[in-house]
Automatic annotation (TrEMBL):
InterPro entries: Bbox_C (IPR003649), COS_domain (IPR017903), E3_ligase_FN3/SPRY (IPR050617), Ig-like_fold (IPR013783), Midline-1_COS (IPR040859)
Lineage per the UniProt record: Eukaryota, Metazoa, Chordata, Craniata, Vertebrata
Name assigned to this protein: TRIM1 ligase
Record keywords: Coiled coil, Ligase, Transferase
Gene transcribed to yield this protein: Mid2
Any one GO cellular component localisation term in the record: microtubule
Amino acid sequence: QVNTAMHEAKLMEECDELVEIIRQRKQVIAVKIKETKVMKLRKLAQQVANCRQCLERSTVLINQAEHILKENDHARFLQTARNVAERVAMATASSQVLIPDINFNDAFENFALDFSREKKLLEGLDYLTAPNPPSIREELCTASHDTITVHWISEDEFSVSSYELQYTIFTGQANFIS
């Protein structure tokens, strides 16, 4: 019962730690998304303001042009028409700047999340088991006065980087173990 309680407590502690890491990362990513939203809305608001300003200037120019078209004095018409035509040309050139620089279809493509690897790891969460001992290939093993070479085959899925090798030297009276 004590052993089970200890393992259950350790399991709860480890799982709570994983949940806390996920919660913190979720919070960080949510903040980044909100910051990006605010930045994009600011840009969009500036573009809307620029478009409104351009629309107001264009409306004034159209009203002036309509007023000039009603002018009956030809000399006065020519004098004011040139001025209005220049202002229309300038307004047309500046309206090219109003092309939106935000593509709303891929506005959050840099926030693509792929949790497939993490999900696979979490689904495979289980107790670790010790790898099976290797099979020693005695026919390939060699020994000299200061070197021992041991060959083995491991059929386990775990990658084992090393094993501890103990040997005994028979001295006749007492065996020396190293």
